[in-house]
Predict the 3D structure of the following.
Amino acid sequence: VMDCITFDNVSFTYPDSETGTPVFSHFSGTIPAAFTSLVGPNGTGKTTFMMLASGRLTPTEGCCMLFGKNPALLAEEQKNLLASVIYQNMEFESQQKVEELLSYVYTNGAYKGKAKSVRSSADLFSEVIDVFEIEKVLGHGLTQLSKGEIQRVLLAFSILYGSASLFMDEPLFAMEARQKKSALAYLREFSESTKTPLYISMHELELTREFASQVLLFYPNRDMDLGTVEEVMTKEALEKAYGVPESMLSHSETMTREELQQTADAILQMNRTKS
């Protein structure tokens, strides 16, 4: 498996950070190319990691390489061809119709309007419309879409552009459970059959367990573990990362870190009262 992402002595602090605390401090590491889920509580650096790796942010010091290139130094189009990035709540200002946007992306991206689908001999365009259930909104303007529809159009967008790697920050936001599963099954299949590494962060640990081929687990102290689901998502590791009993984690996707902390404190308090 080839290495895709290399961080070399990377430090990064957000310029407007009130505390001035670095998100990364002299971090070095390599991440192989694979269908990778980024897991860990909010605020542990998952988004920043993806933005640095894809060249959307430039490290304060050190260097991030993607396929041996430094994406932060590339012109906009070269950067997009090397790495697509989608995240929740991306806003569309344009009045364009969904079909126009997707056709434009497909013909002007890396595929130049010609790519085989991964599941049949059909064209990639029709397969993606089908998989992400976009048929009904093709004639709609981008500003008329619901949040779930926007996310599904964004998934189609990122596939049809044909970048060498894909970064997705909470892309399943506002989608139905059934759609999340069918989207992930397809993304993994697409990633494996086209050898396109995909890095995705998502809250539901169950979905990572079911679909990820490799997991990058982020801890609040900025340590990370990389490996298979079985290697990384152990009871001990998850409790250390989230700071709560594993039994609570199945509900954690709907809870913020503060709520988790309050619940954990309450449990502690109850146990103290009992003893």
In short: The first strand starts at residue 3 and ends at 12. The mean pLDDT is 91.
